[in-house]
Recover the amino acids of this structure.
């Protein structure tokens, strides 16, 4: 297991380096001059612009820029945000917790609920419960997440006024401790729900088909022939095997979750990385965007690394090189 | 009192194309410490009979008639929980293609110990120790207990499956083609292991095979199955010396005899009938070289003849 983890870690580090290179190149290849974008005011002279270029190191050749980019990255320096005029790392650090709390809650719920419902549907294939779970989750999956978000806002926040319209907490409420947490949870219901609803369908359908497949396997009948209780068949024998493709799917999905988060945060004005991305794009804040891209890429790689290790624990056949 | 008695068992599969009589009016007894062989071509209902005894038939299969008496208790009418308690403890089965009988993500030790934990009130540690002992009993290295199925060879997997099925010391063991798909050397080793275990654990067994040599070596009596029915039932020696039913004769002449005279091997022309909407009369009639007029219209009844049972019109007179 130890060598397996080390190998996976090594592969992840190589991927991170590739991402750093690509991330650097993409922004250099983008058309237009970032400095000209920065100063649309006609009173700014060409000399002043050149001065700014020198300050940001944009006058140097690409190779030199790359080396200094990597050097600064190694020191945790992602540059200065054009728009906020603050170090990118600081801007990101302010927003990461908000996004993490939303993403972990929503994806966690989607995975757990999706797996439970999918396993149930697969276990009871052909029954009414199965039909209901599958059709409901497919319906949810078919609705675009931003549309679902807007409908939720319209119905539950605007018309029925049960939930708040936007934000993460009630402004200037002065709440602290448990009261504050409750307030945040209350604000999180709608955005989390829209993410859960969108992702749950995939997990339900995947777990269900994987489950029906596993239940038809010889070893399930053999377990029954040993006298194992039905609950043991479901949890010990079937689910663990059925989870293998689901775990892989979760890793792949985390990349797409980034898109989901940007949408959900924008629709519900949740002050996290997603909303920040939207604003950074609107303001053409290249250093900030570059930082965000890197953050997204690294977190997806990190999450996949964790998924790989979990996979290694569930499936003994995966632990290669032992 | 027989340990297991199957009486007039009928098991049908209700499909859209019609009813398939997979097991039709099958009856036999297995006495304590005896081994009964069940032989016949593929698709003639041997495995289905075995699964019926374990009550592991999945829909659309259904037992529609008959009794399966195990220790004088009718299994057919047993409720789910009582049946579950019987499985593994009273009745055990080693299934065809043991390769797939093991859960790929569970260690061998856990899979063997699981049966003990389900049936006997013992702790995990003791179950693990007994599983380890069991591995030694089937001739595997006890160090392999925490290994996973993919680390085992085919023959080792089959041994592990035998260990798994016998760990609770069942009274009755069904062996469903235990040596199929293995090379002859491993087959040989497994057969002697099975014979050894039978004596060691005092097992009563039902052995299903289409390999006549396997049956000859292991069984006291043999039932020959064709198209869901038993057509001949006799002690092993008599059957091999003088098979009565034309199907038994055909089966034997399709198999080489190493010691006796050298004869041309003959295959049985044709294939077993489909089990949906089978015509009246003897099911073997279309392939039988001795077929009479009566065979086409009337199904032969099981007849008692010189201590043997045979269902054929040739012996009805």
């Amino acid at each position: 297991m130890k060598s397996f983890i080390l190998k996976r870690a090594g592969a992840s580090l190589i991927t991170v380096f590739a991402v750093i290179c690509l991330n650097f190149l993409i922004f250099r290849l983008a058309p237009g001059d970032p400095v000209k974008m920065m100063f649309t005011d006609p009173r700014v002279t060409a000399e002043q612009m050149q001065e700014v270029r020198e300050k940001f190191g944009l006058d140097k050749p690409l190779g030199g820029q790359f080396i200094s980019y990597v050097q600064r990255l190694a020191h945790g320096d992602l540059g200065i945000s054009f728009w906020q005029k603050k170090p990118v790392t600081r801007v990101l650090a302010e927003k990461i917790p908000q996004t993490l709390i939303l993403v972990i809650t929503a994806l966690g719920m989607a995975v757990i609920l999706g797996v439970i419902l999918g396993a149930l549907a697969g276990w009871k294939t052909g029954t009414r419960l199965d039909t209901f779970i599958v059709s409901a989750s497919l319906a949810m999956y078919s609705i675009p997440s931003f549309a679902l978000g807007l409908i939720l806002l319209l119905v539950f926040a605007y018309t029925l006024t049960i939930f708040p319209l936007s934000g993460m907490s009630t402004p200037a409420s002065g709440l602290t401790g448990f009261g504050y947490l409750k307030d945040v949870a209350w604000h999180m219901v709608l955005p989390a729900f829209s993410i859960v609803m969108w992702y749950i369908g995939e997990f339900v359908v995947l777990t269900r088909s994987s489950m029906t497949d596993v239940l038809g396997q010889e070893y399930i009948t053999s377990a029954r022939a040993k006298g194992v209780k039905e609950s043991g068949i479901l949890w010990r024998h079937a689910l663990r095997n059925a989870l293998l493709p689901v775990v892989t799917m979760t890793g792949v999905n985390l990349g797409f979750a980034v898109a989901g988060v940007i949408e959900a945060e924008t629709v519900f004005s949740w002050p996290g990385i997603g909303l920040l991305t939207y604003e950074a794009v609107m303001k053409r804040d290249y250093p900030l965007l570059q930082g965000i891209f890197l953050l997204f890429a690294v977190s997806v790689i990190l999450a996949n690394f964790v998924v790989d290790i979990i996979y290694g624990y569930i499936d003994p056949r995966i632990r290669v090189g032992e | 009192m027989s340990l297991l008695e199957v009486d007039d068992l009928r098991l049908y599969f209700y499909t859209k194309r019609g009813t398939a009589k997979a097991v039709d009016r099958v009856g036999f007894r297995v006495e304590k410490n005896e081994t009964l062989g069940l032989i016949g071509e593929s698709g003639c209902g041997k495995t289905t009979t075995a699964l019926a005894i374990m009550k592991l038939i999945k829909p659309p299969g259904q037992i529609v008639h008959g009794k399966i008496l195990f220790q004088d208790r009718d299994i057919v009418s047993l409720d789910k929980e009582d049946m579950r308690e019987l499985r593994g403890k009273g009745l055990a089965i080693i299934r065809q293609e043991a390769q797939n009988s093991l859960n790929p993500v569970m260690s061998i030790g856990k899979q063997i110990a699981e049966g003990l934990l389900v049936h006997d009130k013992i702790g995990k540690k003791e179950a693990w120790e007994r599983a380890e002992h069991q591995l030694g009993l089937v001739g595997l290295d006890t160090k392999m207990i925490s290994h996973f199925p993919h680390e085992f060879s085919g023959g080792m997997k089959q041994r592990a499956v035998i260990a798994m099925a016998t760990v609770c010391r069942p009274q009755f063991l069904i062996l469903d083609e235990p040596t199929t798909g293995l090379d002859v050397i491993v087959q040989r080793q497994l057969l002697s292991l099975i014979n050894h275990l039978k004596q060691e654990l005092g097992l009563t067994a039902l052995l299903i095979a289409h390999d006549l040599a396997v049956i000859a070596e292991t069984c006291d009596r043999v039932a020959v199955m064709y198209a869901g029915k038993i057509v001949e039932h006799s002690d092993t020696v008599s059957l091999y010396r003088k098979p009565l039913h034309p199907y038994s004769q055909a089966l034997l002449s399709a198999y080489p005899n190493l010691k006796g005279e050298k004869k041309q091997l003959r295959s049985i022309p044709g294939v077993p009938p489909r089990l949906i909407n089978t015509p009246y009369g003897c099911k073997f009639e279309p392939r039988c070289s001795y077929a009479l007029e009566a065979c086409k219209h009337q199904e032969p009844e099981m007849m008692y003849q010189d201590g043997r049972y045979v269902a054929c019109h040739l012996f009805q007179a």
Observations:
- The CA atoms of residues 88 and 170 of chain B lie 6 Å apart.
- The radius of gyration of chain B is 20 Å.
